[in-house]
Amino acid sequence: GAVVSQHPSWVICKSGTSVKIECRSLDFQATTMFWYRQFPKQSLMLMATSNEGSKATYEQGVEKDKFLINHASLTLSTLTVTSAHPEDSSFYICSARGPLGDTQYFGPGTRLTVL
Amino acid sequence: GEDVEQSLFLSVREGDSSVINCTYTDSSSTYLYWYKQEPGAGLQLLTYIFSNMDMKQDQRLTVLLNKKDKHLSLRIADTQTGDSAIYFCAESIQDYGQNFVFGPGTRLSVLP
User: Fold this and answer.
1) Chain B residue whose CA is closest to A39
2) Res B48: pLDDT
3) Between A108 and B70, the higher pLDDT residue
4) What pLDDT does residue A53 have?
5) How far is CA B104 from the centre of its chain?
6) Cα(B84)–Cα(A72) distance, integer angstroms
7) Mean pLDDT, to the nearest integer, of B46-57?
8) Which chain B residues contact residue A44 at CB under 8 A?
9) Distances (CA, A) of B17 to A99, B74, B87
10) Fewest C-beta atoms under 10 Å: which of A31, A106, B17, B99?
11) Distance (Å) from the C-alpha of residue A42 to the closest C-alpha of chain B?
12) For chain B, where are the E strands, in sequence order?
């Protein structure tokens, strides 16, 4: 089946720094990628939808200047958490969808801890 | 490893009830979720249930959990055309982090 990877799997950073998370579709071209955030004791919440070559569409309440998303190629999308604060600590999961069908393939997730 | 299974397709008539079923293999699952994916959109959380619960009701949605059989169902009462979507069942053994396993999704078609 299709494989989606994320890097890094776990990152610890100091408050005020920026962190970049990569999401790659390894064996298919992902025209659309989704970024989710998981809060403790809650489930995945959609943050934004990213289409290759265009600006991401953010869900209500998600700060676009805080969470920068770039989808420059059909196999790579990046999420940059700018000026991270402890409340940004979370588990970030991406998923990728190919040009055919609605099936999403999920990455393994990235745990971000901001000290 | 963990596995979550769902039937792939379901068709119902508008106004009828829809029941989407899901089975999972990991007996240590703590949280079980239902997500909805509309065409072209990302997943939206519909509801979730803790493994120590048997039932959860939220407006038109009723979730039933049979831990013995590892069976989860989502019932949508008075199904509307706007309910047409793909519904994903997911399980997690912890409330945060990895080990999040999704089923393949059930495509619900609501006929007028």
Assistant:
1) B96
2) 84
3) B70
4) 82
5) 11
6) 32
7) 88
8) 33, 35, 43, 45, 100
9) 32, 10, 15
10) B17
11) 7
12) 4-6, 9-13, 18-24, 31-37, 43-50, 55-58, 61-66, 71-76, 85-92, 100-102, 106-111
Nearest CA-CA distance, residue A19 and chain B, Å: 18
Could you tell me how many CB contacts below 8 A there are between chain A and chain B?
Answer: 56
- Which residues are registered as beta bridge partners of A93? A36
Other C-beta atoms within 10 Å of A87: how many? Answer: 8
Which residue in the block uniquely carries the two structure tokens 């934004």?
A48
Asked if A102 lies within 8 A of B39 by C-beta distance, the reply is yes
Summarised one tens digit per residue, pLDDT across range A66-76 is 999 998 888 99
Map residue B15 onto helix, strand or coil: coil
What is the dihedral angle through the alpha carbons of B37, B40, B42, B45, rounded to the nearest 10 degrees? -30
